[in-house]
Amino acid sequence: MHLTLEPLPAAPRPGTTASDAGPPDRRRRTGAVGSRTAGAAGRLDARRVLVALATGFVATHGALAAERPTDPARWLALKDVYKNYFLIGSTNLSASNFATNVVPGENSVAAMTVKHFNAVTPSNALKPEFWSGGISNTNPSFLTNLTSGINADISAANARDVKVTGHVLVWHNQSAQWPAANVLTSTGGWETPWDYATAKTNLEYYIRTVAGHFDQAPFKTYAWDVVNEAFKDNPDNPADWRNALRTGYSPEERPSRWAQAYAKGGKSWEYMYDAFYHARQNTTAILNYNDFNDNERASKAMAIASMVKEFNERYAAESAAGKGRVLLDAKGNPRQLVDVIGTQGHWDMRLNLDAFERTIKTYLETGVNVDLTELDLAPTLGLDKGQRIQNGPEMDALFKEQGIQYAKLFSLLKEYAAGPGGRHPEYKGGVHRVTWWGMTDPGYHTNGYPWSAVGQPKEAYWATTDPEQYLIDAGLPPNGVTATFSYGGETFKARTWGGKNAQAMLDINVPASTRNVAFTAANVSLPAGFAVESMKFNPPDCAVVPGKPCHVTVTARGAAPATTAVENTATFVLSFGKMTVGWMDAANALEAPYSYAEVRFSDGVTPFKQYKTSYGSDGMARASGVAETRAVPRHGRTTLVLLPQDPIAGPFGLKLQKDASTEKAWRLVTRFEPGRTYMVVSGESVFDGKKQAAALTNRSKPATTASPESLSRTPVILRGDILVPSRNTNAPDTEPALAQDNLKFVFEEAKSPAAGPYADQEGHTMQSFIHGTNVYPQIVFRGNGAAGTAVGGRTSLITRQTNGQEGSQIAERNLDQAVWFNTPIDPTSGEMKLFLYSEKDGVKQYHVLTEVADGETPARDAGNAISQRQGAVGGFVAVQADGTKEGTGVKLYAYDIASYTVDDAPTTPTTPTTPAPPPSAESTPAVMPIAPPFSRKGGSLDFGDLALVLAGLAALALARRRRN
Q: Strands, DSSP E only, in 65-160?
């Protein structure tokens, strides 16, 4: 059966003309930082000249802010601003919001909803728990109450031409009876009673009933989130998407009962394909996969992309063989099984936009569209609910920072838009929808929205209405900062969105004979107005051996922006490495003897016999019989399916074949690297009177009379320099023994606000990616001595979910409680100590990471119907100390191959130093000296500042002449 599905275009807006549909710099703009008159459009080029000449905008921003219209009728509707880019959505699904008598405006939730949004997602009304009673309820209310409730809500939205995305068909949470709730088994397990056959039958029944019902007018949905949040947050091998999924026992918090049931007689991951397949058979809606934390963790995004690519290939093959129905798009082509990957966007000001851009590209490379599905971009308000920043100057600065982050985000989203305004035709799809998870503050994530209340736009609103102009008026580049790097006769370009959290990253291959990389500021070319401020080498001599690349962090600075809330900086991390192949077996997923093999720093020449896999009838990835021998693109990083016995003819001295040293494992490391994930392990742990290593764990340790509530620990097995992960103690033997997400921490470089001996040193924040109540990364910080956070000199370690508080992220002014420094890492044993340093009101304080043996965490969680939390005893706290020598010695473990020395490497550096390329129209001369840090204390100006001021005055004069 073939059905032709026409797309549902956005309805034309009254009063629009052909000129309204032009590029953003030729359309009338209202409110990026103020209202523009009809003649204002011609001034944009002059303002871009100001940025190109690196002017200062201290006066400009305030003046233009005063131009913002006070009449709400002149405030732009966001759906009109982005009509040529993507849909704009909210969660305000209610029949009353879309009633026929609601007039677009700013005076009520309903008026703002119909004015600003052309898409809507019900936040809770269609989650699986809306079918109460499960399979025992054969006549749920949504099938009978056709003129009220959710049916009326969707009907009203459709009548106003607002597109409804159903959220969600399959989820591990808010799904009490789908599958049946966990029960204690005769063996002490905590499982759903459903097995594979029961789960498979009822999954089809649920989706056929729900998706089929909401495929009928007038309550037809435009799209569905078919499966939500099915992946773990930090998988080791993203190509092996099957083992990257939540199982019935991993992660500890919020595992998947669907996976658990399917595993009892089938493959745990097969429910994913079944869900999409049954949805395609029962609805013509757009089908989405939706998840979170993929913006920061490339491994999670790559796992999701691997799954979507395989699902669409499998469905195309099955459809061609006559299985199921085929839907056609507007051009008559068969539609894919998965149309959209949704990334949620529950973020704060520490969002790394460069990482998010990498995620967008990863998804678009699969040939699907991308939706931003649950946006709230929150300021960092404080330590916990009792210490959030109050209204006043500090909050005003946070809202300015929030506005700039919103402007950067929407400038990025516009660039990759699926609509005609998008600028990346190399991709089949683009950004198709942006939906806020709410509309006004405080909302789901406190103060993360464009409006503080009904009819009260914030900086975030003005930034969203014209992001490029907002950035220009703030004295910032409107489309990021692009730099050119030269090395080894080649040039490389990279763009960063700038600021203190963004980092563009490049991998660069060096020959096997290279000992040390020679790279200076002469190899860096930057846009006008930017100068290299610092270059940091890790290791300091930039030595390179296979498995240990040299990382060069280049930080550049431009003119001071109009607000002190942000920095005009650009950071690039260049990783120079020799080609490596890291081999990874995939238990229960990839047919032996084939292995996944990650090639990094490819030389672009070495050929690999790569095997294409297909989806076997048993759910396994099996070799399809198609193989191709070719090289990985130079400098590239990708994961292939290889046969270990096939020879690899690589450069002499490099270990590329599979052996004990090239198999990826959790190995002892002796340095921090940018963006790496680590386990923090103590060798001093004692369990039941026996010494055993234990890993710091983002799990709550209960308070005792000896120590406060804090973070837990998990026993781990060490075999030499390798850490061997253990499966969840609640899991059966069939569960793969993979490292749990809550044992993994990402160390990000950061500076402490504390004065004293560490003021100029880089420390690290420890970020944990697990799904708790809120989903953005959790930073490990010590309590501040408030009630419940301190016992006898021992202080809590908090990750927002502990100490009885949900809390918000720690504020910038309190980062001395979260920036961890370390004693020198012993190059042989890898041991070090981690500590915090504070200096306030003349009081100097050290707090050292210390292991404790008290506090018993029970297995599972009596208040959580699906928890598979492991039982544990003891944990880690922060102990006030006189110095850094106290505390517990810990070691770092990272998932990698073993590093080694190439035997035939020469004894002197051989890396060529190549002159930088000639200047282009968009870059300064190639040789860029390292500029000293800009000094603005006391209003002093150095020579570079004076040059920027003169350029700014000249450009401002030009702009004024053009106005007249």
A: 87-90, 119-120
